[in-house]
Amino acid sequence: LATVFYSFQIYADFSGYTDIALGSAKVLGVKLTNNFNRPYFASSIKEFWNRWHISLSVWLRDYLFMPLAVFFAGVLKRQKFIGMPIEKWIFMLATIITFSVCGIWHGEGLNFLIWGLIFGIYLVTANWMMATNKKIRKHLHIAQKSFSYRVYSVIITFILVSFSWIFFRSAGTHTALNIIEKIFSTSGP
Predict the structure, then answer these.
(1) Which of 106, 139, 141, 174 is catalytic?
(2) How far apart are CA 52 and CA 45, in angstroms?
(3) Are 51 and 37 within 8 A, CB to CB?
(4) Is residue 123 within 8 Å of 45, Cβ to Cβ?
(5) Annotation marks residue 106 as catalytic
(6) Model confidence, pTM
């Protein structure tokens, strides 16, 4: 419950001071772009990062992810590696490095690095599983644009994001692991 409430607290905190900056700038005649766009209504982790802290997400994409992807594309000359298209490997390397840097940028400590790595792993897994998910949906006759699938996707995305906030909020890795252990323990009400 505390993890879910923290998800809303961090959103209110970040979005709130962004709104203050937007309002202050507008008073001075400067129009800034919106920095949050209902991120907890995102139906995927990729969409979440397109809606959450948009200025940071765009900066990470333009100045870290894209240059890394171009670099790895120039270095990795094969068509496939371990049976996977090289584009998937390039995406994985660029994503993991980008989100590791994002985690370290947010704070010192292993917990921030793990927080960034979690998002990198989410994005890489989603990218690698895209074709499989499409086959499963087709086999089960689930329309990706259906309301029920959208609600399901939003709930799963919110749960994944909330889980990652445990590492962001905790004083350290040990504390985060204790919280996770308590979430998954069967003792208590």
Answers:
(1) 106
(2) 10
(3) yes
(4) yes
(5) yes
(6) 0.90
